[in-house]
Amino acid sequence: MPINRNALMRYKVIDRMLRHGKEASLDELVFACTDELRKEISYASVSRRTVQHDIQEMRYSEVLGYYAPIVVVNRKFYCYEDPDYTIAKVPLSSEDLLRLTEAVDLLKQMSASKGFDGVEDVVNRLEDHLASIRHKADPVIYLESNERLKGLEYMTTLHEAIVERTALAVTYQPFQFPEPMEFLFSPYILKEFRNRWFVFGHRHDSNNPSIINLALDRIVQLNDAPKDTPYLPDKAFNPNEYFRDFVGVTRGEGKPVHVVFKVDGKDAPYVRTKPLHQSQHEVGIEDDGCVIFSIDVIPNHELERDLLGFGDGLTVISPSKLRKRLLERIRKSLKQYRLQDK
Fold this sequence. Notes:
Layout: H1 5-18, E1 24-25, H2 26-37, H3 48-60, E2 70-73, E3 77-80, H4 94-110, H5 119-135, H6 155-164, E4 168-172, E5 181-193, E6 196-203, E7 212-215, E8 219-224, H7 239-242, E9 257-263, H8 268-273, E10 281-285, E11 291-297, H9 301-308, E12 314-318, H10 320-341
């Protein structure tokens, strides 16, 4: 049987009254539950029998999965036999995880969008985390993290502004600017790239209608915009379409170009298993074992870094403009090494 919201509120109140070794009488639990419900429903009333039923449900219900160790002391007071127990620490059961996985699979089937690809990964991480708690073992999934990453404290504010469609007052410090700048900003979406977070939106004082991105670690301060500040939506903005034609977070000018590059046999398996872009295709294999790939993207700084990251294992064949740009960066790098070797 589904559990209604009022019942969940009562369970939380009972848990709050009994945790940390506290004791409470039935009348005290009834009063506390009624008081909590009346914050939302002025005429709410909770009976003694309802609370007694709640206690039984918390003790034995397989639906809840709490199995709360509630005992009676001196025939009058309820308490947790284990003073450290709380329903807030009850882990998901294997059945819960199975249901969650089934729900994710259903969502993926219902949507043709690739925006759901990361949900399955979240389920796997959650399952691994719970397993490590139950068995007191080290997790078998280790995620890359950056403990010194700045700007994460703004995530909640930005998320709420996007959902509620409200503008923000931003103080921002670009790398190339000696002093921070202040402006009003309407955020549209948050995106993570290589363990850094960015928010995309519209800057109010700009004559350029293009969407800009702000790195969260370069935000100095974030405040609510003045009350009369309108939120400036962009009805034409579609995240799937916007991010489709480039790598990373910087959308360059112009349309996508056809990029062809050659990868040696040693590095080709990495490019096959982790494509540089979703448009990547394998064109063919040369006699020496080198593999030819192609992608259709708008060239930007992030793409150049990815291509150069393979060193002598990758060579761009076309277009000539991108090839010359990479060659220029390689020559500058070589010059730096020669200067240091003198």
